[in-house]
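Exam revision sheet. Question 4 asks you to relate a sequence to its structure. Input first:
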Amino acid sequence: MDNSAARRVLDALPTLTLGLALALVGWLVFRVVVVELADTLNDDSSAYTSEVQECSSEPLQILFGQEVGKEVLLVAKLLSGVSSVRVLSTPGRDLSYVPDRLNLEVNEQQRIYGAFCG
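Answer key, C-alpha cells:
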C-alpha cells in the first residue's frame, strides 16, 4: 500500500467512525422505543382502548328545531359528550341500544324534535 492510499484511509476514518456511532445511537434509540412501547402495551392496554363515554341528552334541547347538518351534529356531539350520533327519522322502530350513543329524532324537514341516549 502506498503512502497516498494509507493517507486516504486515515482521512476517511473520522467520517466512518462518526457514521458507525450515529448508526449505533439510532439502533439503541429504536430499541428503547420498541421495548418501552411493548412494555406500555403489556402493562396498561387500557390506555389504547376507549372507555364508555357518558351520554347526556338534556343540553341538546337548545338544538330542537334546528335542521340536521354537519355543524349541528358536531355541536350535538360536544354537548352530549359522545362521539357517536344516530339520526332517526322513522319513529317506533326497534333500535339497538348503545349507552354512549346519542340519538336525534328528526321530522320530515330534518329538524330535531327529540334526543335521547342509547
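Marking note for examiners. Residues 3-43 form the longest helix (41 residues).
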